[in-house]
Amino acid sequence: MIEVISEARCIDCGICVDVCPTNVFDADEHAHPSIARQSDCQTCFLCEAHCPTDALFVSPLSGPAPEGSPLRDEESLAREGRFGEYRGWIGWGHGRTPGSRNDRNQVFTLRLRALRPPEPAAPGSTTAEKEGPRP
Ligand code: SF4
Ligand code: SF4
Description:
Blueprint: E1 2-5, H1 15-19, E2 25-27, E3 33-35, H2 46-50, E4 56-58, H3 74-79, H4 85-89, H5 99-102, H6 105-115, H7 127-131
The structure holds iron/sulfur cluster (2 copies).
One iron/sulfur cluster is lined by residues 5, 10-16, 33, 51, 53, 55-56.
């Protein structure tokens, strides 16, 4: 669930307000966002993924973090490098490696394909069959 907007990092670009599918944020007259409807957050991480300055923290909890939790504390989150953490994992942002390049599933799939016996040729598809019997 969305927990914190970093006042120190936010540049008021309005992207989080636009991408949130459940309209969690409000923006003031300077386009500065606030968390207006936290209970509508569906923990989709879209806002965190799109924030260009890593100013958002969406906690992995399905409900609000309890009072006094470090998950609600901007200083603590900044110290632990948790702002934009999800965005970093998927490799979005300058200087990061796109997550798809680190995805090992493709290696697994290629290995499986290499182990599988070749598919039998369809009848009539081989050169010999097409050319017919030699004289
Ligand atoms: S996307 Fe990030 S920088 Fe832009 S308004 Fe939202 S919190 Fe601020
Ligand atoms: S995590 Fe998803 S639903 Fe929650 S505030 Fe961000 S964009 Fe909106």
